[in-house]
Write a structure and sequence with these properties.
The complex is a heterodimer. The longest helix of chain A is centred in the first third of the chain and has 19 residues. Chain A is α+β, with helices and mostly antiparallel strands. In chain A, α12 runs antiparallel to α14 and α13 packs antiparallel against α15. Helix content of chain A is about 30%, strand content about 15%. In chain A, strands 10-11-12-1-13 form a five-stranded mixed β-sheet. In chain A, strands 4-5-9-8 form a four-stranded antiparallel β-sheet, with helices on one face. Chain A starts with 18 loop residues before the first helix and ends with a strand. By secondary structure, chain B is mainly α. Chain B is about 65% helix and about 0% strand. Chain B contains eleven helices and no strands. In chain B, α3 packs antiparallel against α4, α4 packs antiparallel against α5 and α7 runs antiparallel to α9. The chains are: A alpha+beta, B mainly alpha. At the A-B interface, α11, α13, α15 and β18 of A face loops of B.
Chain lengths: ~600, ~325
């Protein structure tokens, strides 16, 4: 993102001054204001944050879940930043490497072995809660350790459970058994409360109001990252009256963050006001400049883009700038376009090709390796907007994350253009001298059809006969990818999904584990890849005592997955967002892949 | 729908005296043909359609001539350095699309699909409609009731929604698209044919045929059907453009022909996202679709008027 720091302040000194100077000063001031409101190429001059104003966010649809136990969507993360807080969280700063380092939120510090917060060989985590962090209740009430115990006990509730149970069940003592029992309980508020009150969760203990202790089954060097997820927020006792994420619940949220929800009409709008119980002195992560926030849903992607360009809205809610507009916006150097993260870092392995190992020609490793050589990755990069947005990917770990191997390309492909000759040679070796037929599944929403056609062209040059199979966005995962029987029936041989990790840094648990282990119905290991070697390496990495010890195991797992050619990684991608010209201080925040509404201010 | 030719056009025969010119008897069809040949609009439309068909048939030859093929993506040279489509130039007279493919050759290849879908779907619909309509009109009674109700039901389906649903279940392909179009179009042909049949079966020549022992089928196909040629032909020429547009609509929604095969509909669908930076990508497929549809509609208009010159026209002859 380019953030223009043009400082131009018109200073008016005390004392007598000639009239013509006053006129000149006025003229310059007017010209500045005029230029600032002219829009596109001129950013507003003054850059000191100003409080006040209403931030207008525009989008298409509603969030899926509003309850922190189940909210698992970048848009939900965006508003959870406003009305919830966790023990630790990520700062909104410009440098990506700094952004992915955890900072304390409700906790007084991030526990490490060095500061004594992590003890017992990496298995005990102790947190101290800041006094002064309060719920917006009547009267305002301190957030306590029991509020966290309550949330962890509700994470796997039967009505609205977390979408990542593995993070909790494989780390916290007693969680696995607790959740197995909870799954059998009826989804009513009474039954849920009874279970929560009647069962202890040994791994999460409130030693006193302001001290919280976690006991883990084994060392987990990324446990603090798990505590930064929305699922690990504090939960007030008032929520136990409602079925989690029910319509009634959604009208009675209680905030411990800088804003609170004052209006929610499902599918239509949200309104946020300041939370009087929030004490900025306890919150170093959020500045909360704007006074109100308003979300309007029900628009299309193109309409939102037009409104943001015209200035009748401020930020994207749940849509991004249309892919086909991006090259034009970049060419015209529109500084309202936010591309993040900055530097050689990316937020997503946005296109990779799982190769169906349940049935079909990709069961043969040579055929998989042929595909690795054939794909023209530069062409796909171009479709997404060029080198400013994406880069070819030759491994499954994103740059800057633990397990990334520098300058690693096990299948040299002419600098990303693809090597069709090598692909054909491998196919011949595999017993397909005249090529092999495969089905490529793609989503009908742009830019997937273009990506599919480009892949078809380069794979066909490499000796594959590619048949394109379209699917709607909802069918793509719900009917095909997550349903192993379609792979077993060879309804698809390869497809074009994408993946964004839940955190960065030591994030193998959020990338390699879900994508390359434990295949089955509902699993993100769509292709059925299941290697005992990789599984062992992943286990070692997850239970390593320090991030440094985990690094070597993740690197070996990365290399093994690439040697096995489980998938063809195609491109790493930055994300784009767009905001109006009055939004200032927008720093791309990876957690919501957008600006952070609690840290931007409005100008004019 | 147009009427049958007026009674005044029944054949006559006279002999002139000394000059010895024989006046030939002219059947309604020959009269219609003569009127059509004098109609400038009809000739122009027919020439345009012939040109489109010719170009569509010669598409592979044209592709070789131009040096571009419809599925040939060229993201290096076909796109600008920013990755946007290139405008019309000598190398690409109609510009390139979002993957660097030549728009001219894609528009030409799309003509093949559209014409094929239009003609095959319409012809199928007309054949089925004629058979069912003849049968319903001639036999009457319970059979007529049943077939008429069936036609009514089909006519009351919201065809676009049903078409989308069907394609979603069965999967998109050209065959499915043709099937969907034909399925929804035959009922209106059937109704018209049934109406005509009911009035025609009271004619004397039908009674005469029956009295000499001709079977029902023979009467339907030898006596009644020839008199239906006029309205059916008109309906066919008017059905073809609406079938072409229907196919374009389904492709536009992503439910017609699967990419990378070009059709005017799916080219338009993709081009709408780029209209701000690539006007040529919207204009040329839209112009091709418009020209074809207009030519067929005008021709159909002219054919109808050739059979019935008293009707209203868009353009004076």
């Amino acid at each position: 993102m380019s953030r223009r720091d043009l400082h131009q302040r018109v200073s008016i000194q005390k004392g007598r001054r000639p009239v013509w100077l006053a006129a000149l000063v006025t003229a310059v001031a007017l010209a500045t204001v005029g230029l600032a409101s002219a829009g596109v190429k001129h950013s507003a001059r003054a850059n000191t944050p100003t409080k006040g104003g209403t931030l207008v966010m525009l989008g298409a649809s509603d969030i899926f879940n509003l309850d922190t136990t189940s909210g698992y969507y970048t848009v939900t993360s965006m508003i959870e930043r406003a009305f919830t807080r966790q023990l630790v969280s990520y700062p909104t700063v410009a440098s990506f490497l700094a952004q992915i380092q955890l900072k304390p939120d409700i906790a007084t510090s991030v526990p490490t072995a060095a500061n004594g917060g992590v003890t017992g060989g990496g298995k005990t985590y102790t947190f101290h809660i800041k006094p002064g962090v309060k719920w917006d209740t009547q009267p305002a009430r301190q957030v306590t350790a029991s509020d966290f115990v309550r949330e962890f006990k509700m994470v796997c509730n039967p009505a609205s459970p977390t979408g990542a149970p593995g993070y909790y069940e494989t780390t916290i003592v007693g969680m696995d058994a607790y959740c197995k029992g909870f799954a059998k309980v009826k989804g009513t508020a009474a039954a849920i409360s009874a279970y929560v009150n009647g069962h202890k969760l040994a791994g999460v203990v409130a030693k006193n109001d302001l001290t919280l202790v976690f006991h883990l089954t084994s060392a987990a060097p990324d446990f603090n990252n798990i505590l930064a997820m929305g699922f690990s927020s504090a939960r007030p006792v008032e929520y136990m009256k409602y079925v989690p994420d029910s319509a009634q619940f959604r009208q009675h949220t209680i905030s411990d963050g800088p804003y609170k929800i004052v209006k929610y009409v499902p599918g239509k709008e949200f309104e946020f006001d300041r939370n009087p119980a929030w004490d900025p002195k306890t919150d170093s992560l959020r500045h909360a400049y704007v006074d109100h926030m308003k979300v309007t849903e029900g628009l299309t992607q193109d309409t939102v883009q037009q409104q943001l360009q015209a200035g009748t809205g401020d930020m994207d809610w749940d849509v991004t700038p249309p892919a086909q507009n991006i090259p034009g916006l970049i060419a015209s150097k529109d500084n309202r376009l936010v591309i993040g993260p900055s530097g050689p870092y990316y937020v997503a392995l946005n296109t990779y090709l799982p190769l169906n190992e349940y049935a079909g020609p990709f069961k043969n490793k040579l055929v998989r390796q042929a595909a690795e050589y054939a794909v023209n990755k530069n062409a796909i990069v171009q479709i997404f907007g060029g080198p400013k947005i994406a880069a070819p990917a030759n491994q499954v770990v994103l740059p800057g994350n633990v397990g990334y191997i520098k300058n690693y390309n096990p299948y040299p492909n002419n600098n990303g253009n693809g090597d069709p000759a090598k692909s054909k040679a491998l196919l011949k070796q595999a017993g397909f001298p005249n090529g092999v037929s495969i089905k490529l599944l793609y989503q009908t929403t742009d830019p997937s059809p273009r990506v599919a056609q480009s892949l078809q062209a380069s794979l066909q040059a490499g000796g594959f006969k590619v048949k394109l199979v379209p699917a709607t966005a909802s069918d793509f995962y719900g009917k095909y990818m997550l349903v192993t029987s379609t792979a077993q029936k060879e309804a698809w041989d390869t497809a074009i999904p994408g993946w964004i990790p839940d955190w960065f840094g030591n994030n193998g648990r959020s990338v390699i584990q879900p994508l390359f282990t434990h295949p089955g119905p509902g699993s993100s290991d769509y292709s059925g890849y299941n290697s005992p070697v990789t599984n062992k390496l992943v286990d070692n990495a997850l239970t390593a005592e320090t991030p440094a010890a985990a690094a070597s195991a993740w690197q070996k797992a990365n290399a093994q997955i690439m040697r096995d050619a489980a998938v063809v990684p195609v491109e790493f991608q930055k994300f784009t967002a767009y905001h109006s010209s009055r939004v200032q201080g927008c720093v791309f925040w990876f957690f919501d892949i957008n600006c952070d509404p609690t840290n931007i201010w409005l100008k004019g | 729908m147009s009427q049958l030719p007026a009674e005044t056009d029944l054949p006559e025969q006279t002999q002139l005296g000394a000059v010895g010119l024989a006046i030939q008897a002219r059947s309604p069809s020959r009269l219609a043909w003569a009127r059509l040949r004098r109609d400038r609009v009809a000739i122009a439309s027919a020439l345009v359609i012939a040109a489109i068909v010719l170009v569509a048939l010669l598409a592979p030859l044209i592709a070789d001539l131009l040096g571009h093929h419809p599925d040939q993506t060229d993201q290096v040279h076909g796109l600008s350095p920013e990755g946007l489509p290139r405008g019309p130039s000598w190398a690409h007279p109609f510009g390139t699309d979002s993957l660097g493919r030549d728009v001219l050759i894609r528009v030409i290849y799309a003509a093949r699909i559209s014409m094929l879908a239009g003609v095959v779907a319409s012809t199928t619909a007309v054949v089925v409609g004629v058979v069912v309509g003849l049968f319903a009109g001639y036999v009457g009674g319970v059979v007529d009731n049943f077939l008429s109700r069936m036609m009514d039901v089909i006519l009351s389906f919201p065809f676009l929604l049903f078409g989308i649903a069907l394609v979603s279940i069965v999967g998109p392909s050209l065959g499915v698209v043709i099937g969907v179009i034909a399925f929804f179009s035959w009922a209106s042909v059937g109704r018209i044919v049934r109406g005509q049949t009911i009035s025609l079966k009271e004619r004397e020549y039908v009674e005469a045929a029956r009295s000499i022992g001709a079977s029902g089928v023979r009467i339907m196909f030898s006596e009644i059907l020839p008199n239906l040629v006029a309205p059916v032909l008109v309906y066919l020429t008017l059905l073809i453009p609406s079938s072409i547009v229907f196919e374009a609509t389904l492709s536009f929604l992503g439910l017609g022909v699967v990419p990378p095969t070009p059709t005017w509909g799916n080219m338009l669908a993709e081009s709408l996202g780029f209209y701000q930076v690539a006007w040529w990508y919207v204009l040329f497929p839209a112009a091709a679709l418009l020209t074809t549809t207009l030519a067929f509609n005008l021709l159909g208009d002219s054919v109808r008027d050739a059979f019935d010159p008293r009707g209203e026209r868009l353009f004076r002859r």
